[in-house]
Amino acid sequence: ERSYQKFAQAVASFRDFTMGWFRCTWASMNLCLSILSTTLLGTLPAGVALYQAGILDPAQVTLCLMLALGIVSPLMSATAFINSMKSMQFAVKDTRELLNLPQLTQTEQNARLEGSDIQMRDVSFSYGGTEGKEVLRHLDLTIPQGKFTALVGPSGGGKSTIARLTARFWDVTGGSITLGGQDIRKIPLK
């Protein structure tokens, strides 16, 4: 049931993103498609009327029709460019959010490791920092040196989060993770 909730949330999030994107580009797409479909409807009668009035000859009417059709491709390119700009805006927004994440604290002192056991003591973690919803709460786990350890559980159970915390992609919001008896926050990232 929990993995279904996560899946449903992911689908809803994708729907909201897609609908937001469509709302941003819908007006320009409709305008462009309206202009394109009426290009011949306006040009052909006007060309025929000007020909009947003796203002244009058949070659000039044909040229006007060809030019009217020729404008379709650049307008479609402009529409695609507008859509690309919206995609870039979303990418820039996501990049800004990534760049605004707090930096991990780093030490320059080398740490002396006693073995390579990994221990998680009372580990809590939330993706939004201390304000976010906790995805791990008060976890205790020991991964002994030289042994195989499998993390097994349902989708959304925290297996990948545990692996990423161990690799220090993020810092825990509570508790500690030690490697060889040293808190990983005291081990240089380099």
Automatic annotation (TrEMBL):
Cellular component, GO, one term: membrane
Species of provenance: human gut metagenome
Locations listed in the record: Membrane
Record protein name field: ABC-type multidrug transport system, ATPase and permease component
Pfam families: ABC_tran
Keyword Nucleus attributed: no
Alphabetized SUPFAM superfamilies for the sequence: ABC transporter transmembrane region, P-loop containing nucleoside triphosphate hydrolases
Keywords for the protein's UniProt record, in alphabetical order: Membrane, Transmembrane, Transmembrane helix
Membrane topology: Multi-pass membrane protein
Recorded GO MF terms: ABC-type transporter activity; ATP binding; ATP hydrolysis activity; ATPase-coupled lipid transmembrane transporter activity
Domain ABC transmembrane type-1: 1-87
Chain segments annotated as coiled-coil in the UniProt record: none
Main location as per UniProt: membrane
TM stretches of this protein: 31-53, 59-82
